[in-house]
Amino acid sequence: MTDTPLAHNIAEKAAQHGPEVTQNVSILFAVLLVAMIVTLALEEKLHAKKSLIVGVYAVVALLMGAAFGILPFGAVTMPNGHHIEMPVFIPSIDWGVICIIVGSSIFVDVTSRSGLFTWIAIKLTKLSKGDPLKLLWYYGLMTVVFSAVLNNVTAMIIVGSLTGVSLGKLGKKDLLLGFLLIEGLLTNIGGLLTLISSVPNIIVGNAAGISFMTFFIKASPYVVVATIITLIMGAKLFKIKKLATEEEKAEAEKLVSGFDENDGIESKGFFNFATVMLLLFIIFIASTSQLPWIKELGMGFVALMFAVIMMIRYKSEVDQFYKSIDWDLIIFFMALFAVINVMEHALVLDLIGQGIDVIKGDKENMFGTGALLLSASVFSSVTDNIPLAAMLAKILVAGGTPSDSPLWWAVIFGANLGGNLTPIGSASTLVAVTIIHKNKLNMSFASFVKMAAPFAVIQIALAIIYVLVFLR
Known about the structure:
The protein has 22 helices and two strands. By secondary structure, the protein is mostly helical. It has a domain at 95-187 and 251-326. The protein has a two-stranded antiparallel sheet.
């Protein structure tokens, strides 16, 4: 085999991990990763749930990792210096994400019992006067705002719940698929708005030394334009039109006027309590990194804490809320984290990173910056964008990249927007697909890619232009 710069870099990494991690081993595991992605694309034809598909690959990946001796077996060292014995795949799972999904799902489910979400949905529906296009814009903007101040998963859970209620009340369930897909895509655009909107933002922003205000000022113009374009495209592609005739408007307004936002409120006291708790939940989630004690415990703790507080209202029947948790989604994420962790130890992520390093070149230039953003988008669409962002940030730091370089923004935009290419590209798009399935709507892996591709291509192309022209 020719000793290329790529092979040499992989060999150096392998030496750090151990002599058994050769380039051939990395390629073998990369093939396994590709096979998993292809299998997920055929999910509907296989009649298998995502959790089972990825679970099978997690088992195979872990067995192969053990066979090749690349996994770090032994005690895990905690920050306090204590050693804890646990299975090697347990530390690989991002329990913060799992806790956020479980906690926010329970919180939203209990809060919905207060009638709050129905109240908000009917208020927005009334404001739209029953016009589907206006409702799309209201909910789209709400999605971006929620994604900016909450995490994307929580935003999608809340907005998805509201959408189902509103369209159900209007008798427009046929538009639900389009609404939910657009909202799922908008969560990743809203995730670009602030430094704390997504984990890749935090990783790359900290590595580059980008302040909160600098991040917001530089990212917000793109977010505004991309949101508008996405909503316009979504309305056209999914045929979400405003009411044309006066007769239609009068009929819709009459229908809307008959809605009573207080119908779902059984207890005014619990409604007021839930309203206060929702506001506090948003504040706590948005300011987790600034709150004493809470910042050490993380957003997952905040989600679980508020779930526990809300369940006190139904203390004798909390088991009913545990049943509402989407265990298919939870198991899918746990298995996916295990697979990605094995890929990291097999140096597949480094192989990807080294390839991107070759693409962008040694010196900063427009072609290299655009290629980096595009590559980051593609790779983050099929793998966890958190380790990808961390790996690319390390590459840029090692290269002495200045904090005002557009290369940092190429990674930030690529890692976030790549999530719109596939349903496994981000947690929020996966949640959107899960809500779609819960509403008994048809959406396979392949159909998601087909529907989302036009949006993702335009969003990524716009990001490349924005980074190259305005952030240089």
